[in-house]
Amino acid sequence: MWWETTITALLTLAIYTILVGDNPIFKFAEHLLLGLSIGYSLVVTVKSILIPQAIAPLGDGQWAALIPVILGSAMFLRVHPRLAPWSQIPLALLIGAGAGAAIPAMMQARVLKQTAATISGSGTVDGVIILLGVLVTLMYFVFTRRHTGAWGRAAVAGRYFMMIFFGATFAYTVMSRMALLIGRLEFLLSDWLGVI
Amino acid sequence: MSMLRDRLTILTAATAGVFMVVQYFVTSPGMDATYRAILNWMQVIFACALMVGIAAVVKNHIVRLRRRRAERPYSLVLLASVAAMASMGFSGGIDQGSSFLWAFNHLQAPMQATVFSLLAFYVTSAAFRGFRARSVESAVLIAAGLIVLIGRVPLGEQISAQLPAAAEWIVNVPALAAKRAILIGIGLGMVATALKVIAGVERTYLGGR
User: Fold this and answer.
1) Which of A173, A129, A146, A147 is nearest to B178 (CA)?
2) Which of A46, B32, B73, B152 to pair with B136, CA 20 to 30 A apart?
3) Please, how many CA atoms are within 13 Å of residue B202, restricted to the half-sphere of its CB?
4) What is the CA radius of gyration of chain A?
5) What is the count of residue pairs from A and B with beta carbons less than 8 Å apart?
């Protein structure tokens, strides 16, 4: 519908007004976006996590669900200055369990798989370049050894490999943001104004 | 009292951490059930933490509404939009055709996309101001960035037929090598930090105590 598109277009333009400097129109749009995002998170969290995993099981008489409810409620102690430190216990469970889950997951996904892919692909010229690139970049990150002599030269080569990676990553970032910009401009010029 | 509480906190983190590591290697129905229960608990605690954050933002804006005259209209917009979105979601549901989903599709999502697209301007402006080939490293970075940028758009093929292939090679060989090394480094770093948390050496989550 035209009026829906007009509202969306006006809000899009309101956000773009920041390009000429901070102004009340942008501030209005910014606060509206923040409020909508907070409201969205609130509804989705309650409907997809709290109701099915805490409130509904308690309603069915599954009293084990009381444990996360009590731990979760302890998070609210943060608002009280004297009781706030007790909110660290549920936080410790989150951090401890997250750390424990991360050890095998990180070893598997980040260290072993990447190492295996690097070694298994070393049968070609490109594979050898990748293997050498991985080695010299890792050597750059060894800070317990002085970067002098052969080690230092390898570390410098590692730095060049990283610069190539940062350059490529920058190019991808620019392209993805440009794609979003083109999408928004296409919406304004085509969907809203119909000039293209 | 505070020492007992700190010990209890460290013990909770250590027990949960050790259990999560052990359950990866040992499979039994009891272990799997406990693992799933802990994952559910984590989600509920995380949801409650999010609620605390939301309450803090709302409280701050209520305070702003009372004290700062210039900021009042914006705080009012924020509080009204939180209330509107929440009431639409709780009363009308979040399914297809609901006003909640309408607000998400026609207000929130386009505005978010616009905010992210703004970065195109800032990234370009930062590149113009910051990209000076003052050293060999920065020259390599600029060259790699330009080749990938131009090689991945239709213009690149018109400039030279080799440019897209060069961009592809840069992404798939030298950039991949550095990416893998960085990923291995991050993985090892995360494992080391996780071990420090479980062993109680890393205690920054206790507020630096």
Assistant:
1) A129
2) B152
3) 16
4) 26
5) 383
Please list, residue by residue across A3-27, b when 16 or more beta carbons sit within 10 angstroms of its beta carbon and e when fewer do. eebeebbebbebbbbbeeeeeeebb
Tokens of B53: 């954050």
**Cβ neighbour number for residue A58 with a 10 Å cutoff:** 14
DSSP state of B70: T
CA A90, A93, A95, A98 dihedral sign is negative
Q: What is the pLDDT of residues A167-178, one digit of tens each?
A: 999 999 999 999
Q: Are the Cβ atoms of B190 and A110 closer than 8 angstroms?
A: yes
- What is the per-residue pLDDT across A15-73, written as a single tens digit (0 to 9) for each? 999 999 999 999 999 999 999 999 999 999 999 999 999 999 999 999 999 999 999 99
Residues B80, A115: C-beta atoms closer than 8 Å: no
Q: Measured between CB atoms, which of A7, A68, A75 is closest to B41?
A: A68
**pLDDT classification of B50: cutoffs 50, 70, 90:** very high
> Do B21 and A79 count as a contact with CB atoms less than 8 A apart?
no
Can you state the angle between helices A88-106 and B29-67, rounded to 10 degrees? Answer: 130
